[in-house]
Amino acid sequence: MHPPRRATPRRYLMCPPTHFEVTYTINPWMNPAKPVDVPLAVAQWEDLRDRYRSLGHTVDELEPRPGLPDMVFAANGATVVDGRVLGARFAHRERAPEAPAHLEWFRAHGFPRVQEPVHVNEGEGDFAVTASYLLAGRGFRASPLSHAEAQEFFGRPVIGLDLVDPRYYHLDTALAVLDDRTDEIMYYPPAFSPGSREALRRLFPDALIATAEDAAAFGLNAVSDGLHVLLPQAATGLLEPLRERGFEPVPIDLSELLKGGGSVKCCTQELRSQGPPGVAGLTVG
Length: 285
Ligand code: ARG
Hints:
Blueprint: E1 11-14, H1 38-54, E2 58-61, E3 78-81, E4 84-87, H2 98-108, E5 113-115, E6 127-129, E7 134-138, H3 145-154, E8 158-162, E9 175-179, E10 184-187, H4 194-203, E11 208-209, H5 212-216, E12 223-224, E13 228-232, H6 239-244, E14 248-252, H7 255-258, E15 269-270
Parallel strand pairs: 1-2, 4-5, 7-8, 10-11, 13-14
Antiparallel strand pairs: 1-15, 3-4, 6-7, 9-10, 12-13
Bound molecules: arginine.
């Protein structure tokens, strides 16, 4: 039996894909030869934003900047836990200017503890927050040194996980937190090194294990509020296992953004305030 499910109100930061395009390739999903339909990308993104709002969550919007086509993937711009903001430092120069844009937003919105990082980290692309841990990916983007930096800043135990498949270049393409009060996650084991797989098995023996098809449909790039799990609609194999565990899957069509190698979670940065989840905005902003 699963624990009772309860949605808690969240606060998210999102950035509209006004300037979205694929002009460079920094992950295997990006093909500049494939045209991008910006109005469609914007409509799909608005659908995700409106879905969050209709579920009772707060969505703040970051002003998109021309020349930064990946800025729509707002999850990468910072990590916010207990109201503390650790900025990003991007691995690729194409995305580097996104980091100061995020820092500026946090400073303008009254977040008292904002830290510019020394080591490369791409925000929630490689950091995932559970009740007990800060899970931290490495191998393609985040520097392993960023893990110690994050542990020191947030005061939460960091579990380093090695990513080995270039299609799953960020932790949030291979693992999603389903319940941040009970340490429940879902993930795709082949995206991780054998040792990291074993570590995940030890820490999360009851995790939902995704198939290759659902991982390839970006099904692990999902956002949960404790009850509703918003995920790419093509990841149909996850629907039943999620329902069996008491979650309510909410399929979202973000096919246009998949051309940039991102989906639901990549577009969504969670602004976690101090205290238990559900009091978003109480001590920050
Ligand atoms: N094109 C972007 C990149 O490769 C996609 C980022 C997706 N974001 C994420 N959180 N996985 O950096």
